[in-house]
Design brief:
The chain has about 425 residues and is of the alpha/beta class. It contains 19 helices and 15 strands.
């Protein structure tokens, strides 16, 4: 075939599949197929059946980009895979309210305008012991808002050992700079003492900032100032202490501090994420003193950073589960996966291995999402041939595992019993598709 032999766009559009599709999509598919054909001919390769290629392009254009993925990596809060999966009751509430109107900003009792913040605030106050609470769209936004509202144009004192990068190149010093505050670093990377904070406090100091190292640990010759002692330093200086917990937790999970423990230790504001150890939707949560929360609520940035109705629906339902901690640990997927005995995980791995002809391998799962970086969770995986990694990732639904030592490991800690069957079908299909006709 030569370039002059390529069909026109109109000729391709006469194909039954393209003719039945929305014209704009069909035209784009036809043009894309022709462009690929030109590239193939330029490279000396037969472009094949153009109608088939155009149909494939059409299918690609009509397939949603955001799709379900089966997580067989053993990383529970996987940032690339959407972090925390929601509890079934939260998903149900999203389906219930997502397609209808709601009282997002209407006080049904008085008929007057209400606040979207009211829906989660009461639950957060009860769960953390805080005077007030505010929800924005992620934890970086929560910290940015706190610094902008309380320290713009003034100094924020923070330990040099807490100037973390929170993912995708975002760093605490940069967030602080965008808030309009000036950073004053104290101590060294591995050792910061109470006296370092005390010497740094001056007339321009607006607040003390503590950043929990949720995504790393410094070990060895180290020293840091505990929240309680730092709160006492702040109190003597009549300054607020803002504690950025990062991933955050409402129940005890490993050595992660909870929001309630931070407040009990004397922090005035505590910021944390909704979609990590809490197990809810992406959100930034601020709890603490009512007067300080009110300053954040009234700051102009708050409107730009506020959470939308779907986030608040899912967050409210997730928080409601925490009223019964045992229920929360059963029904919130992140907590359930963290707590599950390795024997139960191994049973799923053995069943998967039996279905796909794999071998069971002992593995170590991770919390992920910048939480508990040193935690190792004993786990088990079904090990299969490495060559299936790409076909499984490109399948429907995609399956993502871990390639290690020449094999693909499908870790069962992050798979439910129902998903084991889906993964098995995907593996068997990928094997059949890879066998030459």
């Amino acid at each position: 075939m030569e370039l002059r032999d390529l069909p026109s766009v109109d000729r391709l559009l006469a194909d039954d599949a393209l003719a039945a599709a929305p014209r704009s999509l069909a035209v784009d598919a036809a043009r894309a197929a022709l462009e690929r054909a030109r590239e193939a001919l330029a490279a000396g390769v037969d472009p094949g059946d153009l109608a088939v290629a155009a149909r494939a392009e059409l299918e690609r254009l009509q397939t949603p980009s955001l799709r379900q993925v089966l997580n067989a990596t053993g990383v529970i809060v996987h940032t690339n895979l959407g972090r925390a999966p929601l509890a079934p009751s939260a998903v149900h509430r999203l389906a219930e309210l997502g397609g209808t109107y709601s009282n997002l900003e209407l006080d049904l009792e008085s008929g007057a305008r209400g606040s979207r913040q009211d829906h989660a605030a009461g639950l957060l106050r009860r769960l953390t012991g805080a005077e007030a609470a505010l929800v924005v769209n992620n934890n970086a936004a929560a910290v940015l808002l706190a610094l902008a509202a309380l320290a713009e144009g003034r100094e924020v004192v923070v330990s040099r050992g807490e100037l973390v990068e929170i993912g995708d190149g975002f760093r605490i010093p940069e967030v602080l700079a965008r808030s309009g505050a000036r950073m004053v670093e104290v101590g060294t990377t591995n050792r910061t003492r109470p006296a370092d904070y005390e010497r740094a406090i001056g007339p321009e100091t607006a607040l003390l900032l503590r950043v929990h190292p949720s995504n790393y640990r410094v070990v060895g010759f180290t020293q840091s100032v505990e929240t309680r002692e730092l709160a006492q330093i702040a109190k003597r200086a009549a300054l607020p202490l803002v504690d950025d917990l990062g991933s955050g937790a409402l129940l005890d999970v490993g050595d992660e501090p909870t929001a309630s423990s931070s407040l009990a230790a004397g922090a005035d504001l505590v910021c944390f994420s909704g979609d990590k150890l809490l197990g809810g939707p992406q959100a930034g949560i601020v709890v603490g003193r009512a007067d300080l929360v009110e300053r954040l609520r009234r700051h102009p940035l708050q409107r730009a950073l506020r959470a939308d109705k779907l986030t608040l629906v899912a967050l409210e339902e997730t928080l409601a589960l925490y009223a019964d901690p045992d229920r929360a640990r059963r029904e919130i997927p992140v907590l359930r996966m963290l707590d599950e005995p390795v024997e139960a995980v191994r049973e799923r791995a053995e069943r998967l291995a039996g279905l796909i002809g794999g071998e069971v391998e002992e593995t170590v799962a991770r919390v992920g999402g910048g939480a508990l970086p040193l935690a190792e969770l004993p786990s088990a995986a079904a090990a299969i041939e490495e060559r299936l990694a790409a076909p499984l990732r490109l399948g429907s639904p995609p399956v993502v595992g871990i390639v290690r030592d020449g094999r693909l490991l499908l870790d069962a800690r992050t798979l439910t019993a129902e998903e084991v069957d889906e993964v098995a079908r995907a593996v068997l299909h990928a094997r059949r598709a890879s066998i030459p006709a």
